[in-house]
Write the structure tokens for this entry.
Amino acid sequence: MEALIRWLVDTFPPLSEALARLIVYVLYSGVLAFVAPVLIVVAYTYMERKVLARIQDRVGPNRAGPLGVLQGFADAVKMLTKEDVTPACADRVVFNLAPVLATVAAILVFAVLPVAPGVIGADLQAGVLYVVAIGALGEVAALMAGWSSDNKFALLGAFRAVAQLIAYEIPIVLAILAVVLAAGSMQLGAIVAAQDIPFALVLPVAFLVLLVASIAEIGRSPFDLLEAESEIVAGYHVEYSGMKFAFFFIGEYMHLFASAGVITTLFLGGWRGPLASSDSLLGVLLGFIYFVVKTTAVIWIMMWVRGTLFRIRIDHLLDFAWKFLVPLGLILVVAVAVALKLPAVNSPALRWIALLGANVIAALLMMIVISLLARRSRSAALRAVAGAD
Amino acid sequence: MSSEFAFVGILAVFATLLPVAGLAVAWLVRPKKPNPIKQSTYECGIETRGEAWVQFRACYYVFALLFVVFDVEAAFLLPWAVAYNQLALYAVVEAVIFVAILALALVYAWRKDALRWT
């Protein structure tokens, strides 16, 4: 980005630096806000359908275009021409704002994602905090939709959504905290630069916590209680139809890609890979390809999980967050902090080993605690049964 | 610094334009034939009784309170994590005590059965 701004200033002398910067910003935001959503939604809905079809031993979409690749566009046209039904008692302003907010929140995350070497919209100093904060806006959209629909299913879905999303927000923050400790910065660009070894290898526990919590955060199966179709029809967006529904859908897939992108950036080295550098156009392009491939791999894991696991109950879901992921995250943060301050840790290699050791210790500790607790509650349950006899 | 937030601002405007434009186009091309049955609340075909804003269980509120505790904690710990490499050993001890107090809060809530979904 900076290189492009400099090139613009050098090639077109009347252009001032501020104006060149403005032009580049407008172009890049245009790409992020208009081109990226279309490409991402079309590509990943197609991928999701094909992957799920493969898992379920079906063919998947195969009518629109060769191998059904145009299915996404066919859906878009269909959504566009569908009649829009708004419930008579709905709070119309909030009802109409909710899908807009859902889409905007998902797109805004892309502002801080380093998608290629040197290509990052805004390398904010509090980058990861921004990601978490903007992610929370999506929750507000879900609550707005459920609240304004005047529908009990929708309201129940919205409540579930908020309970679930706030529960899994904390493990996300704690996992990110471990990364920030290891990288020493909240800037996503600096975090990528710090990953001489991808953090997934040295902080595997934090990686898994973030992966699981992200799946819950974007409300995908097995954590799709907020739109559990067998219980509450479609959850918070049950009253939405036509284009408004489509924007929830777009927001969901943008959020999916953004979350996978954040995981890639924080744990898989982002755009880093052989020959990727900001020196040449080829290097930048290569970095972008690495980023997309890694992100797609993360998304593929999420789809795989969706195709394999069944939906879990709400009490199990909240227990899993509060009684497993949150304590694990707390232990992990303390372990990582202590490991980094050990007097023996004085070389980069030792640092990586210390981080890995902290992760293993945190995981083992949590396993021991949880198995003791589980044994106790099991024996208490057995005693209760015996007492009843 | 300010130019970075300028980018976020520009992106926010563009990102709002996308759904607004999409909804406007849909408004132009879609059919509009509302009728009272269509606009009634959807509850799988059964007639609705009362309004939707009924009382819900209080569990949600307890979880929201707990969330506030830990989210504020996170906001405090992030700057600490950034400055971690420059900090002396006492900062580690301090942070561990801070996390321990919050862990205690979690244990307390757990023992009080606030984490049980009833």
